[in-house]
Write a structure and sequence with these properties.
By secondary structure, this protein is an alpha+beta fold. It contains three helices and three strands. β2, α3 and β3 form a beta-alpha-beta unit.
């Protein structure tokens, strides 16, 4: 992803990215704030899917990039529909 995004964007956008689960062909990716989530999804959703599919050995159509939620005792993770 560094080669695709370039060093400056990579350092700004990808720090702290967490790859979540795959559900119904959607890769869930978690980042630190809504602004970064929106930019990553707009620019790199397809690239996340292409890079992750062979690693996870799953059919991935696109990535849904979401901000990590911070509240109470929550782990900060969003569970995809039907997820555990």
């Amino acid at each position: 992803m560094n080669m695709i995004a370039g060093a400056e964007d990579y350092d700004r956008l990808f720090l702290g990215v967490e790859i979540g689960d795959v559900h119904d062909g959607i890769l869930y990716v978690f980042v630190k704030c809504p602004k970064i989530a929106a930019e990553l999804e707009a620019k790199y959703s397809l690239q996340f899917a292409i890079a992750a599919a062979p690693i996870l050995q799953r059919d991935i159509q696109f990535a849904n990039v979401l901000p990590k939620m911070r509240s109470g005792r929550s782990s900060g993770r969003v569970t995809p529909p039907g997820g555990k």
